[in-house]
Amino acid sequence: MNMEKCKYLLFCGTLALWMAGSFQQVYAATEPSSQAIQQQSNKVTGKVSDATGPIIGASVVEKGTANGTITDLDGNFSLNVKAGATLVVSYVGYKSEEVKAGRGPLNITLKEDAKALDEVVVTALGIKRERKALGYGIDEVKGEALTKAKETNLINSMAGRVPGLVVSQTAGGPSGSTRVILRGSTEMTGNNQPLYVVDGVPLDNTNFGSAGTNGGFDLGDGISSINADDVENMSVLKGPAASALYGSRASHGVILITTKRANKDKISVEYNGTLTFDTQLAKWDEVQQIYGMGSNGTYSYDAISNTNKSWGPKADGSNMLKYFDGVERPFLIVPDNTSNFFRTGITATNSAIIGVNSGKTGIRFTYTDMRNKDIVPQTHMSRDIFNLRANTSAGKVDLDFSVNYTREDVKNRPALGDSKSNIGKNLMTLATTYDQEWLQTYQTADGEYSNWNGMDPYNVNPYWDIYKNFNKSKKDLFRMNGKAVWNIDPHLKLQATLGAELNWFTFDDYKAPTTPGFEAGRLQNSAFRNRMYNFEVLALYNNHWGDFDFNATLGGNVYKVNNQTTVTTAQDMKIRDVPSLTSFNEISVVPGSYRKQINSVYGAVNVGWKHMLYLDATLRGDQSSTLPTGNNMYVYPSFSGSFVFSELTKLGDLLPYGKVRMSWAQVGSDTDPYQLGLVYTKSKYAYPGYTIGYIDNGTIPNKDLKPTKTNSVEMGLELKFLKNRIGLDFTYYSQISKNQIMGMASSWTTGYNYRLINAGKIENKGIEIALSTRPIQTRDFSWDINLNFSKNSNKVKELDGESDMFELEKASWLDVQVAAKVGENFGSIVGPDFQRNEKGDILIDPQTGLPQYDKSNHVLGNASWDWTGGLLTNFTYKNLSLVAVFDVKVGADLYSMSARAAYESGKSPETLAGRPPVHAQEKKMVCGRIAERSR
After folding, report:
1. Residues 408-418: what's their mean pLDDT?
2. Measured by CB atoms within 10 angstroms of the end CB, which terminus of the chain is less buried, N or C?
3. Does residue 419 form part of some domain?
4. Cβ 830 vs Cβ 753: under 8 Å
5. C-alpha to C-alpha distance for 411 and 391, rounded to whole angstroms
6. From which residue to which does the signal peptide run (predicted)?
7. Half-sphere exposure of 794 (CA within 13 A, CB side)
8. Which pLDDT does position 117 carry in this prediction?
9. Which of 397-406, 677-686, 718-727 is the most confident on average?
10. Closest among 557, 567, 549 to 603, alpha carbons compared
11. Are 819 and 808 in contact (CB under 8 A)?
């Protein structure tokens, strides 16, 4: 479907909604009922307001009848009623009022209902709806809850608060990214993270860099630039039924963020400040404290060969050893020999907020300054966030505009994984008789690198890394949102939203000359220029006829991404005191691009009956530029319903609220660009008179690629007991994702490493339970306890029919990998294992005494959690509160490179087994090594 057809459908749908509203009004005006004819002599007029101004769309009904109306744009109403009638005035989030119809105009003021307000949530497309009307689960967290213990990344504050939401932080420090998964992984490739939507506009959460097989740097994400002080609330849409209207970008769920406006009819000035202290979490204190530096039970006098090995003799101080820095010292254990390298980290966050509101026009400005000094010396970060939101009303038109600018500077992000500059790894394996302070002699008198580790010279001295090498990044991020709403009448409105995001990010990684592996020096500059545009038009209609409530939405969206990347690598440094590109002899430039567009049309219909039975249906069609022409348009529906049975039972305070809900939905997703054809690259080599180029694809293109499809079923039960002091929300869900877009291994005879195909099926099913309680409630004191629990089964059902395993990530150079294996939970840890007999005992080689290995792949564990949960407790006394949040994750396995390094270096307590007494002189096999013992 091309854009012209999309525009035509949008126009026709909008026209249909307009005609429906107009017909209803004309019919009401030209065909009055007999009851209305009798009442024309008693016409009641009035105005409905709250503390801040008129209420648009409030319901005014003659009690005991279906005769009613709703207020207009100024809160006014007019209704013909019987003499002496009583009017029932109501609006979502307010306490209903009953007033006697009089002769003069009525001025009715509604008061907010705290209990009712809790039942109003923000749903897809930013539409506020009553929770009881939803046929799917949704969780909402108020902004004030996110500011009580601020994190450097807003999304970290969501940990433990929402069932089914798993928050994982990397080892990238305060400037690193955060990974969020909702209800498990639905795709075998890709990041499986939810879509973030801020004030109706999707947010680009790109992470420009992460740790791979051989290490790397975590360069942060986009959500970190949202200031918690600006957040009104966050809604979590976990299932496809909840997020279906957002299309393929929301196939892993949606997190909606609504920011604050200026408070009505007043001027406000606000300051918020927090100070956080960080200390080293892993002190590596569980190490053996008996044997010192060395190998095979001995040590070398020069003490350079075994700096990271603790396989030497007992360290009893009877011998002197010449250490790396040239100083002779007694051969003794140095307790806690690494902690003094680190310092206490400090994060200071200060926010200043100014709000001005004159009634129809409001402006809110926030400036946030964050400064972080990391626990690693010479590592720090600064982040400045400017946020402006302005809104105004002009007649029937409402305008809302916001702009956000974030400036972030980071010095010395930590190297991760198996990087040779991973400070944590290099310190962790430091021999037990070695104090990290001795490594401060990291350079010679000529300023060149001083080798400290003869066994592995490429593991860089941590002090050289922080004082001679460096990395730095700079981010300038602009976000601009504009929304215009035309309130045509109380029933129909048109809404247009335009959003743009411009992100300029640069990262410099400098290796000083003589650094192991970079002896001639190297400077690599990565420059990212990301641009994202989002345009949306909506027509929204709402009305009610007697016992029926009706809402309809029709819209269209254009989403466009244009990202440019340039990686400049400079080598062979000629001016060694100036780390800039002009100081190098050899420079290479590699450009890259990422362009993508999705055109969409969608609609939704919601019908309610007597405020207890609700039915919803949605339909969306996406057209993606990353799929072939024949398959690039995909349509998917959703259906949901809810039944509020408490409206029938009328059990009062015992069970004031009870609801069952059910939904079915389908959602499609596409892939990255440039997967459909060959990519040609110009070679750096030249032949006189010719340009040399080559095909740069590592994967066979697929011109018949189809979108991935996910089908989901969800059922739920919601209950509230004892005047709403106890609440229970139970959810069961099951979803299957098929036609996975995967790069499967290809025969080397094809000339490619992989082939891109549609294959594979993943099943997610599980339960979620949320329990909210208030065991104590007095005039001045209250105690709230909220518990949540979720259990998800994330099974790999199929691959391509030829293989039963698909590699996701490899553990450095080892034979261990994380994989998708048929019949197992997603994220199997696979590798060689011990040979065992029928009883499960490990077989020992009688010749060597070593365990016997089976080098074929075995499932060693799984990275999926058995269950996750959270506990929130809140004590409130008058205006004081004490809040504690616990995030619980149980049962996942991991292959620990850190634990492996502790074993390999001889520092783990488990390596004591089989080591010799000091008086013995023999050879014995210990942990696969020969340890020579002295008698």
Report:
1. 91
2. C
3. no
4. no
5. 38
6. 1-28
7. 26
8. 43
9. 397-406
10. 557
11. yes
State how far the Cα of 468 lies from the Cα of 443, in Å rounded to an integer.
Answer: 9
End-to-end CA distance of the chain: 85
Return the DSSP state at 428. H
Buried b / exposed e along 360-372 (16+ C-beta atoms within 10 A) = eebbbebbbebeb
Query: Residues 571-594: pLDDT tens digits?
Result: 999 998 899 999 999 999 999 999
Question: How sure is the predictor about 36, in pLDDT bands with cuts at 50, 70 and 90?
Answer: very low
Specify the residue for token string 């790069």.
Answer: 743
Host H or E run for residue 900: helix 897-905
User: CA nearest 169: which of 226, 236, 218?
Assistant: 218
Rounded CA-CA distance 795/323 in Å is: 53
The CA-atom distances, in angstroms, between 673 and each of 495, 563, 702 are 31, 11, 12
> Which pLDDT value is given to residue 463?
95
Distance CA 312, CA 933 (A): 9
Rounded Cα gap, residues 79 and 32, in angstroms = 12
Closest CA to 809 of 895, 891, 892: 895
In a domain, 19, yes or no: no
Report yes or no on 755 lying in a domain.
no
Cα gap 641→351, rounded to integer Å = 43
Residue with tokens 């006829």: 545
What's the per-residue H, E or C state across 1-21? CCHHHHHHHHHHHHHHHHHHH
Q: Is residue 235 part of a domain?
A: no
CB 307 within 8 A of CB 431: yes
Task: Give CA–CA dist 422/410, Å, rounded.
Answer: 17
DSSP one-letter string for 842-862: BPB-TTT-PBPEEEEEEEEEE
Tell me the three state secondary structure of residue 768. Answer: strand
> Does residue 313 carry a pLDDT above 60?
yes
The answer to whether 313 and 321 have CB atoms below 8 angstroms apart is no
Q: What is the DSSP string of 25-80?
A: HHHHHHS--HHHHHHTTSEEEEEEE-SSSB-TT-EEEETTSS-EEE--TTSEEEEE
> How far, in whole angstroms, is CA 28 from its chain's centroid?
49
Going by C-alpha positions, the residue among 298, 463, 329, 323 that lies closest to residue 906 is: 298
Its domain, for residue 101, covers 32-116
Number of domains in the chain: 1
CATH number at residue 65: 2.60.40.1120
Phi, psi of 229 (to 5 degrees): -65, -15
Helix (H, G, I), strand (E, B) or coil at 436: helix
Coil, helix or strand at residue 741: strand
- pLDDT higher than 80, residue 922: no
Question: Mean pLDDT of all residues in the chain?
Answer: 86
Residues 45, 46, 49, CA angle at the centre, nearest 5°? 160
172: left (phi over 0), alpha (psi -120 to 50) or beta: alpha
In degrees, rounded to 5, the angle at the alpha carbon of residue 678 between the alpha carbons of residues 676 and 682 is: 145
User: Distance (Å, rounded) from C-alpha 211 to C-alpha 97?
Assistant: 59
Give the E-state strand segments of 183-253 in sequence order.
195-198, 201-202, 216-217, 231-237
Pick the closest to residue 386 from 401, 370, 361, 404 (CA basis).
404
User: Which band of pLDDT confidence, cut at 50, 70 and 90, is reported for residue 375?
Assistant: very high
Place of tokens 């629990």: 789
Q: Which residue has the tokens 């990301």?
A: 530
**Which tokens is 506 given?**
């640069």
- Please compute the mean of the pLDDT values over residues 331-356 and round it to a whole number: 91
| Helix H or strand E encompassing 649 | helix 646-649
Token digits of residue 902: 């502790």
Amino acid at residue number 392: T
User: Who's near 764: CB < 8 A, 6+ residues apart?
Assistant: 183, 184, 185, 186, 733, 734, 735, 736, 737, 792, 793, 794, 795
pLDDT for the residue 934: 29
User: How many C-beta neighbours within 10 Å does residue 51 have?
Assistant: 10
783: which DSSP letter? Answer: E
Please give the helix or strand (H or E) that residue 22 lies within, else none: helix 3-30
